Each structure stands twice: as C-alpha cells, then as structure tokens.
Amino acid sequence: MPRIFSGIQPSGELHIGNYLGAVQNWVALQEQYESFFCIVDYHAITAPYAPDELRRRTREMATSLLASGLDPAKCAVFVQSRVPEHTELAWIFNTITPLGELERQVAFKEKAARQAQVMAGLLNYPVLQAADILLYLADSVPVGEDQVQHLELSRVIARNWNSRFAPEGEPYFPEPHPKLTPTRRIAGLDGQAKMSKSLGNTIGLLESSDEIWAKLRPAVTDPARVRKTDAGNPDNCPVVFGLHKAFSPAATVTEVDTNCRSAGWGCVDCKKVLLESMNAELAPVRARAQVLAEQPSLVDAALDAGVEKARAVAHGTIEHVRDRMGLA
Ligand code: TYM
C-alpha cells in the first residue's frame, strides 16, 4: 500500500477549515493508504504557549480526530513528541537546508511579523515538517492550500539529501507532493482571510448547533444584498456559499444559487439551510466526541497503538540515514 503522512498543530481546537481542508480527506484516504496522522506538538511550541494548555489541547485534538472518523485499526494517530526520531531527522536536515530557502517562506514572514522576538525554531519549522513526512518515506501529503510552500521545501530537502548521500540513480527519500481537495481553502467568518486559529475567525468542529448559529447569523454575505428583496450573487459570498458547497448536497447548492440570484430567499433563510446541512454532517461527530470524552482510555489506547506503528517505521529510516551519513 502506498504511504501518506499529514500533521495538525494542537495550538487550538480543530476547526471546520482543518476538517474540510484536510481531516475529512484523511478519513477517506485511510481506506486506501498506509496512513500516518500526527499531532505536531513540537511545531506548536514555536509560538507562545502554556504547558498545561498544550497538554489539554493535544488530548482534545486526538479526541476530535478520532471523532471525525480516523480509525486506529486502519491508520496511525500519534503525538509527534513521543517519536524522538522526528527531531533527530530535523537536526540532520538542518545541515543540508539553505538558510535562504527558510527566510523566504511566507508562513515564516507572516508569523515573525507578529512576534516581538523571533526564535530560531520558527525559522526552522518547515525543516521539522520535512522530517515528519520523510521519516515515513511518504510521497503524498493530504493538506490544505496553505501548506503547499512548505511541501516545496520538503522536496528540496529530499533532493539535497539524496544527491549527497544516496547512491547515484537510487534516491532514498521520495519527493512528497500535496494532495489537495476541492475545499483546499476555507474562508474565515470575517471573509477577510482563510479560517485560522490565530485569526479567531473559526467555527470549532465540536461547537453546538446554537454556537454555530450565533456565528453564522452575523457572517458576511454578498455586500450588494442590503434588503431581503435585493438579488444577490453567490460568487460574491465566499463565506456562506463556500460553506454550502462544502456541507450541502449538490441539489441544495443549486437551490441556494437560484434563490440568491432571484432574491427568493433572504440571507437568513439561506443561513438556516446551511445550519441544517452542517448539523447533518457534524452531529454524529459531536456524538462520537462525547463518547470518547466519557471513555478516555479509548483515546489513550489509540495514541499508544499509533506511536508503536510510527516508531517501527521511523526507526528503520533513521538507521539507514545514520549509516549513509557516517554517524556512529
Ligand atoms: P495546521 O495545524 O495549521 O492545519 C492542519 C491542516 O488543516 C489545513 N487547513 C485548512 N484547509 C483549508 N482551509 C483552511 N482555512 C485551513 N486551515 C487549515 C492545513 O492546510 C493543514 O493541512 N504545518 C502544518 C502542520 C504540519 C504538517 C506536517 C502538515 C506539521 N508537519 C507534515 C503536513 C505534513 C500546520 O500548521 O497545519
């Protein structure tokens, strides 16, 4: 079976941008691939954080991933810091990564601009990400669009290592490629940017129907629709129409399109239909999360099984790398 790897930071709750851009795809792909899904706590500590909160959020992330449908019998769900080979390979990769490649990463420049003092870990973040993926020799990485530049760098690192340490014509590390979905970029509720934990414009995967409605009701729509009787254009409504395309059946999306253009429905009517579609998808996820919260041993067992599968592969890769590089 071909192998995939992907990761998610436990720096906040799992939101529907993560779910639609990545996690929903992971649930489908675990059927066809040998799959490794990692909660990347070493990445999360590159931003300011509180230790107890990180521990709690790592746990909550595991619960949300399992509730979303990741099945520990079919894939490995594990926490990055329990597999020390991730940081070992990251150090090794630091020695073959040109500084200029790191300095031009857009995610680095954006995050660095928001911090008073920039730590080296933030700059080296994508090196650890390359180590995550290549440790499992994964050539396919299901992610949202914002991760594409990081994956380009993973390919540079794989090529650099292969050209220095693998025999001519026999590359060891594959060059990993992103596996995107049609919902590769979910807009935030403010309509200004992508949905993101750090921008506070999210809907949490486990939020109740009432909580979701409190956020949907004031969400921006087509600015041309001032009154209910004004005709609208769904293409100018990236937040609400975007979520309809992600959550509603195709027939409902067509109905939304027609009724928006003819002013048959007002924006509140349209949002009520969206809430129904979201509840149809998310109510079973909320119910599974409730079961897991009541039986924490299920989460422990899943994470233990995941780490065991991960270490078995990681160990073999590191042994090979050490041998080729002349490390003792
Ligand atoms: P993170 O934790 O920010 O996001 C996890 C996944 O969710 C996707 N995503 C989105 N997709 C569509 N629309 C959005 N608004 C949206 N917001 C987030 C992300 O693209 C991602 O797939 N650096 C990574 C974590 C990581 C990783 C890895 C990923 C560490 N090592 C190795 C893949 C492979 C990150 O911060 O994702």
Helix content: 40-55%
Q: Gyration radius, to the nearest Å? A: 21 Å
Bound molecules: tryptophanyl-5'AMP
User: Which sequence of SSEs, written as H and E, runs from N to C?
Assistant: EHEHHEHHHHEHEHHHHH
Please state the overall shape, judged from the principal axes of the Cα atoms: globular
Please summarize the sheet with the most strands. Answer: 3 strands, parallel
User: Mean of residue pLDDT?
Assistant: 96
Uncertain spans, ≥5 residues at pLDDT below 50?
none
Beta-strand proportion: 5-15%
Provide a short characterization of the protein structure.
The chain has 328 residues and is mostly helical. It has helices at 16-29, 41-44, 51-68, 85-94, 99-103, 106-113, 120-135, 148-165, 209-216, 240-247, 250-261, 267-294, 296-325, and strands at residues 3-8, 34-39, 75-79, 140-142, 177-179.
Polypeptide structure, described:
The chain has 328 residues and is mainly α. The chain contains 13 helices and 5 strands. The protein has helices at 16-29, 41-44, 51-68, 85-94, 99-103, 106-113, 120-135, 148-165, 209-216, 240-247, 250-261, 267-294, 296-325; strands at residues 3-8, 34-39, 75-79, 140-142, 177-179. A 3-stranded parallel beta sheet has the order 1-2-3, with helices on both faces. A two-stranded parallel ribbon has the order 4-5. Strand 1, helix 1 (16-29) and strand 2 (34-39) form a beta-alpha-beta unit. It starts with a strand and ends with a helix. The mean pLDDT is 96. It binds tryptophanyl-5'AMP. Tryptophanyl-5'AMP (TYM) binds at residues 5-9, 17-18, 21-22, 40, 43, 129, 132-133, 141, 143-144, 146-147, 150, 184-186, 194-196.
